[in-house]
Amino acid sequence: MRPQRRQMSWQVRGVRGATTIEENTAEAIGEATLELIEAIEVANGIDPSDIVSVIFSVTPDIDAAFPARFARTRLGWETVPLLDVQHMVVGGGLEKCIRVLMQVYTPLLQHQVQHVYLRRARVLRPDLESPTTG
Fold first, then answer.
1. SS (H, E, C) the chain
2. Which of 32, 66, 85, 86 has the most other CB atoms within 10 Å of its CB?
3. What does the pLDDT read at residue 102?
4. Full-prediction pTM beyond 0.85?
5. DSSP β-bridge partners for residue 17
6. Per residue in 74-93, pLDDT tens?
């Protein structure tokens, strides 16, 4: 077992999360996206000025709006580099799913980062405890 190193400075870490929508509408995409990124920010003490970039991926059955469109409406997110991509298709995969990979500067060690899975997306990572919203 490796000894734990003391964290001397902030590092760039990846924070993962996912959520789902019930219907392919801009309203549903916006609500789920904002709920997810807020939960990630709260769980990890993230300030928007510490975000390096964010990648959203959506399953092919989501095409009513880009998640980044809604993220950009959050205070401090106006200049965060955002990217929307389509998630690869895997048979039997979770439908109507929005995933996120947020790269942030943080003092947290890798094992302290809280990844957030909401709604039906909790099945993707049953090993993680996520906030009880949604």
1. CCCCCCCCCCEEEEEEEEEECCCCCHHHHHHHHHHHHHHHHHHHCCCHHHEEEEEEEECCCCCCCCHHHHHCCCCCCCCCCEEEEECCCCCCCCCCEEEEEEEEEECCCHHHCCCEECHHHHHHCCCCCCCCCC
2. 32
3. 98
4. yes
5. 100, 116
6. 999 999 999 999 999 998 99
Determine the straight-line distance between the first and last CA of the chain, rounded to whole angstroms: 38
Dihedral-angle region of residue 59 (phi above 0 means left; psi in -120 to 50 means alpha; beta otherwise) = beta
Strand partners, 11: 106
pLDDT at 43: 97
11-124: what CATH class? alpha beta
105 closest CA partner among 54, 41, 52: 52
Q: What is the pLDDT of residues 30-69, one digit of tens each?
A: 999 999 999 999 999 999 999 999 999 999 999 999 999 9
Nearest to 60 by CA among 42, 31, 84: 84
d(CA 50, CA 108): 12
Tokens of 72: 């950009």
Q: Quick count: other Cβ atoms within 10 Å of Cβ 13?
A: 19
**For residues 60 and 39, what is the distance between their CA atoms, to the nearest angstrom?**
24
